[in-house]
Amino acid sequence: MIETKGYAAQDAKTALAPWSFQRREVEADDVQINILYCGVCHSDLHQIRNEWGGSLFPMVPGHEIIGRVSKIGNKVKKFKVGDLAGVGCMVDSCGECDNCHHGLEQYCTGGISFTYNGLEQDKKTRTYGGYSKLVVVKEDFALHVSEKLPLKAVAPLLCAGITTYSPLKHWKIGKGHKVGILGLGGLGHMAVKFAASFGAEVTMLSTSKSKEADAKKLGAHKFILTTNEASIKSVTGYFDFIIDTVSAPHNYNLYLSLLKTDGIQICVGAPPTPAQILGFSLLSGRKSLAGSSIGGLPETQEMLDYCAEHNITSDVEIINIKDINSAYERMLKGDVHYRFVIDMSTL
Ligand code: NAP
Ligand code: ZN
Question: What structural domains does the chain harbor?
């Protein structure tokens, strides 16, 4: 086993604190990555507080990992020592189900090995995330990262990036579409950048008036303050698509009313409690409520390559790992501009 250290939550009630633990050895098809930066996702907070249920403790969060390969197994073909590598939300999957065969590992029916708060495919070895010095992962689950982009701003692409890129691609959202992005946080700001880059007319739907100027800088053409009745009424029946990135309970019926006939609200946000949806919100206008989870390996690589080509990165605030707990408090208040990223040299 490899001795390492990170920051962990020991249970759902206590703050993250330094923790020493062991990683598995580097096997034939594994790479060991020395972590440079790790993004802070709202999913980290949901899981350390056990808001979704079933959390495994101690938990080292972090699934927006960027680092350099420091060791390789003897069968590794895609990476050499010194290469940049990224790891997102998954470190393995069954490799045998239909979804895995189609590059949709995020929908693996055999059970995904999530980067943390999960188990390896042996179904017993715990996985630990990127708020740590190093990670060992199968080479197939490590992504190539361009040397061209600022690394700290690339880390969030591994979750916030792919989670918003994937539904935009799946529903072929682009030129001629009016798309609303609900919630301007980590996911929301990447959704704005991608949707604008794909040629859609982008409207930011936000509860924070203070984010209006930033939304426009990120590429939004319009800004609607969702807490202002007149403002939100002005976009009733307006959108072809809404990408819903909200992390907390909210009124789905209200946002469904903003869709055109046949419009689709795509949920990527994962509030901890069930939503109440009125049948009428869907049947009047033949609307759909859909969902999307991260993205598979081929699409994640495609997204990283697209970002390198089009110079797209995340807007980040770099933090010292000792400030992680106060960063979570700011995240809960919607005070993120627009992704916290931990500089792992501060560990
Ligand atoms: P975040 O940075 O905290 O952003 C969430 C944004 O939602 C906030 O900035 C705020 O934007 C808005 N918001 C918060 N509370 C709200 C409320 N009560 N009503 C309306 N709007 C509210 O979070 P994130 O990291 O982007 O993650 C967002 C959600 O996506 C989380 O639930 C996370 O677990 C989930 N997630 C899902 C996937 C997936 O695969 N589908 C992947 C990653 C994350 P405004 O200030 O603009 O209103
Ligand atoms: Zn995430």
Answer: 2-159+314-346 (3.90.180.10), 161-291 (3.40.50.720)
Q: Residue type for 322, please? A: K
* Helix and strand totals (H; E) in the chain: 11, 19
Q: How many CB atoms lie within 10 A of CB 1?
A: 8
CB under 8 Å, gap of 24 or more: what pairs does 45-54 form? 45/328, 45/331, 45/332, 46/247, 46/270, 46/272, 47/116, 47/117, 48/9, 48/12, 48/16, 49/12, 50/12, 51/272, 52/270, 52/272
pLDDT, tens digit, for every residue of 210-229?
999 999 999 999 999 999 99
Cβ proximity of 130 and 35 under 8 Å:
yes
Identify which ligand lies nearest to the alpha carbon of 266: 1
- How many residues make up the chain in this entry? 347
Taking CB atoms and a 6 Å cutoff, what residues make up the pocket around ligand 1? 41-43, 46, 159-160, 163, 183-188, 206-208, 211, 245-248, 250, 268-270, 292-294, 331, 334, 336
What is residue 58's three-state secondary structure? Answer: coil
Q: Which residues pair with 132 in a beta bridge?
A: 6
Other beta carbons within 10 angstroms of residue 249's beta carbon come to 12
* Phi–psi pair at 191, nearest 5 degrees: -60, -40
Nearest CA to ligand 1 atom 46: 208
pTM more than 0.70: yes
- Kindly tell me the sign of the dihedral angle through the C-alpha atoms of 18, 57, 69, 293: negative
